[in-house]
Amino acid sequence: MSSLIKQIFREKEGYFFIGHIFAMFFGLAGLLLVLPHPEFVASLPPIGQSAFSWSMIGGGVIYMILGWATVAFYAYRQLGVWHWLGFMVPALGISLTSELLGTSTGFPFGDYHYLSGLGYKISGLVPFTIPLSWFYLGFSGYLITRVGLEKLSIPNFVKDLGAIAFGSLLLTSWDFVLDPAMSQTSMPFWLWDQPGAFFGMPYQNFAGWFGTGVVFMSVATLIWRLKPVNFNNVSLTIPVGVYLGNFAFAMVMSLGAGFYLPVLLGLLTGILPLVIFVRLANQAESDDGVALPSLSR
C-alpha cells in the first residue's frame, strides 16, 4: 500500500486523486458520524454549521468531479486524446442515455428516481455527475483488466472481449456495494419506486449496470482498435487507486448501514478479480527480469 501511495504522488494527476479521496472520506465522516448526532452540528459555531451544510450539499458533486478529472487527465497523459475521448464520449453518452431511460421508463435498471445532493439534474431526472462516475469507474475497471490480459498468450480479440466482460463486472461489483447504502439509508441519494429482493433493489438493476458497461466498453474497444494501444507501457497506479478508493467508500457506507452481503459479493466479484489482473500484469514484468515499481508498466 505504501508503494502505491508513493507512486500516486509521482503521477501528475495524483493531486486530483488525493482531492477525490479526501472529498469522499470527508463526506463519509459527515454521513456516518455527524448526521446521526445532530447535537454535534447544533453545537458548532455559525461558520461551522455553514461549512457542514455546504459539504452536505456540494460534497458529492465535488468528489465526483475530482474523480472524473483524475481519470480524464490520466487517460490523456497515458494514452493521448484519441483514446481518452474514444472511451469517455461513449461512456458519458451511453450511460446518460441508460440513466434517462431508467428514470423515465424503468428500463434497464428498474423504476427509481434521484433525490438532491448530486448536482444539477439533466432533464430534471439525472444528476450531471452520474455519467462522470460511470466513466471514471468504467475506464478504471476496463483498463485494469485489459492490461492484465495483455500479458496472456491469447488472440487480441479475446483480450478485448475479456476486458469488456471483466471491466463490466468490476463496474457492476462496485454497484453491489454502493447502491444499498446510497438508496436505503437515512439520507438516500436515490429511491427505488420498484422495490426488489436485493436490499430493496430489483435484480434487474445489476443486469442494467452490466449491460450498459458492456455497450459503452464495446464501442470504446472498436474506437481504440483504430489506433492500437501499447498496453505494456501503461501505468495502472491511478486506475487501481480510483477503483479501490471508490470501493472502500461504498464498503464503509454499506457496513455502517449493516449491509454485509453486498460487501461480500463486491469483494468476490470486484476486488478478487482486480487483484488477479494486477498480479498478472506485475508477474509478467517479473518474469521478464525487469525491476519496476509495483503497478508500474
Q: For the report, how would you describe the main beta sheet?
A: 2 strands, antiparallel
Helix content: over 70%
- Give the terminus-to-terminus CA distance: 17 Å
Coarse morphology: globular
Order of helices and strands: HHHHHEEEHHEHHH
Into which percentage range does the β-strand content fall?
A: under 5%
What is the count of helical runs? 10
Number of domains: 1
Mean pLDDT: 87
Biggest β-sheet: strands ordered side by side in the sheet: 1-4
Question: What Rg, in angstroms, do the CA atoms define?
Answer: 19 Å
Structural class: mainly alpha
Low-confidence stretches: 288-294
Number of strands: 4
Question: What is the compact description of this entry?
Answer:
The chain has 297 residues and is mainly alpha-helical.
